[in-house]
Amino acid sequence: MLVFASICPHPPIILPEIGGAELVKVQRTVEAMKKLAKIFEKANPEKVVIISPHPTPGHGAQVPLFYLLKNLPDLPMEELSITFDSYKDHYEWGKKEGRKYQANPARIAFVASGDLSHRLKEEGPYGFHPAGPAFNQKLVKLIEDKDRKGVLNLDPDLIENAGECGLRSICFLFGVLDNQKYQPEILSYEGPFGVGYLVANFKIQ
């Protein structure tokens, strides 16, 4: 059964050994990840499944799991990698996987790893584009509203100009949650380095 679902960012800078003094600039994200880890532990999962834009041994899984598995280091883990297929294809893929999770007697935790727009600031990795903050604001609102159709029908030009990396993971998550009662909870959102970091919990009901 599905007992936990979340969206996690994956910037290596939120790891203490990498972020160092810069960690203070992403304190909201760090604190949200710590809060999410407590929710994760309380859910008492028997396995965690994570989908990421960056396959092993990339930071897509390592960064979120640094926090989530801190007190559960031996928890079995399965990593899935996004493909070049469409956002709708990832949603349908997530639906298939979600049915398996919901039918499985084991307690499954699911994590969608990904950052939002990389174009929030001139000094960011891809410079600034007005589509960056517009995309992030719209996507966060759609997630809060449980509007999967809105997520799947975002303007392609907005997506392209935003320079995101996590949308396919999020579409997969919405597929996983299809026919599942849940309540989204935005734990934090910030973009101090020109990249949007979203931490969200989905309370499984």
Automatic annotation (TrEMBL):
<dbReference type="GO" id="GO:0016702">
    <property type="term" value="F:oxidoreductase activity, acting on single donors with incorporation of molecular oxygen, incorporation of two atoms of oxygen"/>
</dbReference>
<protein>
    <recommendedName>
        <fullName>Extradiol ring-cleavage dioxygenase class III enzyme subunit B domain-containing protein</fullName>
    </recommendedName>
</protein>
<dbReference type="GO" id="GO:0008198">
    <property type="term" value="F:ferrous iron binding"/>
</dbReference>
<dbReference type="InterPro" id="IPR004183">
    <property type="entry name" value="Xdiol_dOase_suB"/>
</dbReference>
<dbReference type="Pfam" id="PF02900">
    <property type="entry name" value="LigB"/>
</dbReference>
<feature type="domain" description="Extradiol ring-cleavage dioxygenase class III enzyme subunit B">
    <location>
        <begin position="59"/>
        <end position="199"/>
    </location>
</feature>
